[in-house]
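Quick one:
INPUT:
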């Protein structure tokens, strides 16, 4: 049987674009790709990229205050949100264009509309056009989830954060994960009064306890009004803003309420159930290690599979899929030891096991140090950075590394190479320090602070 396409990709985000580009550009497959929104997906359009640019914008007041301590005669004026937003939009347009060009030059045919699956070898576009295809790749990503409660329509999500007409004076951020904690810090840095409500005992659940405690303390010190063990019961519209009635008995007014309470796979109405696929509890598509679903011609990569919801992971899954199906190189992306960074202020970089998870697995040594780094110490600040290694007592391998520090994301990327190669504590010790840096502490911690 001949098909219109060898591969039809639904979703033009990180995973879908990589898969389409490799399948077409490297392996000569005839590839179509449908995207109902803007090319680039969550990462480029409403996630990592605009978020990181906001992180940069929000760090200037601190940098200027520090510069004064270093002798510079500078004062921060006001922050012009409209100016920043306009620049941001221009940059996102540029990036979207770059994504399109990459696809076009790889020979991918782009359809700027929604596509749904009709059967195992057929897709239908919103315009009604139908195509047959040998393989289908679902790479539709995720979407913010807001729980059901009275007044939920008054809350916004991270999707809207980049389009705010004006910055609020008082903001409430609900949630304790990546997005909530990052935006609480961004808004604080931009001069907004920020409160954050998190239902659990400590933010950033799942990360190393000591490291997330360190981040939470630093956020509080910088002025984020963080309330753990607190959730919103209802939101009410008031003349000046939004009243949040919380489980701790408080009723407070805000100008904006941001819900960052997780994301759900974007699978509704795609035609997956009609194919006979049973979706997971949150709507995720179950796949095997080659990203293949129970329907052999249908594959899925990225957040829609609910494995590890990070852009570089989606890219690697998309690439592995193209290598497997079109390059005759069966490749399964290994999801263990994926490093990540949370762009709170200070940042947290993390790879491998937390102390809590590691000690469940085997006897460990913990190396940890918290100290005032040179740059901010000179400026008279109390900020501390945290460097932490978890080491296996038997194999001596470093099982986990956790860093809370400015630029921790940059540091953890490099630590992840060594740890991925199976470096032992003695390998770290043998490495000569780079002085004076913060990261040198990773190779100079001689004695464990505890064993477990
Ligand atoms: P997370 O899963 O990280 O956090 C969701 C938060 O919302 C948790 O604190 C959770 O609490 C809380 N929550 C969930 N449901 C409710 C509810 N019904 N009521 C109140 N609170 C609730 O999701 P995010 O939205 O922050 O981020 C989504 C994904 O995006 C992340 O998993 C991450 O993979 C990715 N991401 C990565 C970034 C990076 O690499 N820097 C940046 C941003 C996003 P509890 O802990 O109790 O479950």
């Amino acid at each position: 049987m001949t098909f219109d396409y060898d591969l039809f990709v639904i979703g033009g985000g990180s995973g879908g674009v990589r898969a389409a580009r490799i399948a077409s550009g490297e392996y000569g497959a005839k590839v179509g790709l449908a995207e109902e929104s803007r090319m680039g997906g969550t990462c480029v359009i409403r996630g990592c990229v605009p978020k990181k640019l906001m992180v940069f914008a929000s760090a200037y007041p601190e940098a200027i205050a520090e510069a004064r301590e270093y002798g510079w005669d500078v004062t921060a004026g006001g922050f012009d949100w409209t100016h920043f937003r306009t620049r941001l939009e221009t940059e996102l347009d540029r990036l979207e264009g770059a994504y399109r060009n990459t696809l076009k030059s790889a020979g991918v045919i782009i359809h700027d509309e929604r596509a749904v699956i009709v059967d195992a070898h057929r897709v239908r576009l919103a315009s009604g056009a139908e195509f047959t295809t040998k393989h289908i790749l679902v790479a539709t990503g995720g979407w913010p989830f807001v729980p059901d409660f009275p007044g939920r329509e008054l809350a916004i999500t991270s999707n809207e954060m980049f389009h705010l007409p004006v910055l609020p004076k008082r903001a409430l951020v609900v949630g304790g994960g990546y997005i909530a904690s990052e935006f609480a810090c961004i808004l604080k840095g931009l001069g907004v009064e920020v409160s954050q409500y998190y239902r659990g005992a400590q933010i950033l659940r799942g990360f190393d306890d000591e490291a997330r405690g360190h981040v939470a303390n630093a956020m509080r010190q910088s002025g984020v009004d963080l309330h753990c063990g607190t959730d919103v019961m209802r939101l009410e519209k008031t003349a000046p803003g939004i009243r949040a009635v919380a489980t701790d008995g408080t009723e407070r007014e805000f100008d904006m309420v941001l819900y960052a309470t997780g994301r759900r796979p974007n699978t509704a109405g795609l035609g997956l159930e009609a194919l006979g696929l049973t979706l997971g509890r949150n709507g995720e598509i179950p796949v095997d290690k080659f990203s293949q679903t129970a329907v052999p011609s249908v594959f899925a990569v990225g957040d829609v599979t609910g494995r590890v919801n990070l852009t570089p992971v989606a890219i690697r899954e998309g690439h592995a899929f193209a290598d497997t199906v079109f390059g005759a190189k069966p490749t399964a992306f290994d999801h263990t030891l994926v490093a990540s960074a949370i762009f709170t202020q200070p940042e947290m970089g993390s790879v491998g096991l937390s102390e809590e998870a590691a000690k469940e697995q085997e006897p460990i040594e913990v190396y940890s140090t918290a100290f005032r780094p040179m740059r901010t110490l000179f400026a008279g600040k109390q900020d501390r950075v945290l460097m932490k290694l978890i080491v296996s007592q038997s194999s001596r391998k470093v099982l986990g590394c956790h860093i809370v520090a400015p630029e921790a994301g940059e540091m953890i990327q490099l630590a992840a190479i060594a740890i991925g190669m199976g470096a032992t504590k003695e390998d770290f010790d043998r490495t000569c320090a780079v002085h004076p840096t913060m990261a040198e502490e990773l190779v100079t911690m001689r004695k464990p602070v505890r064993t477990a």
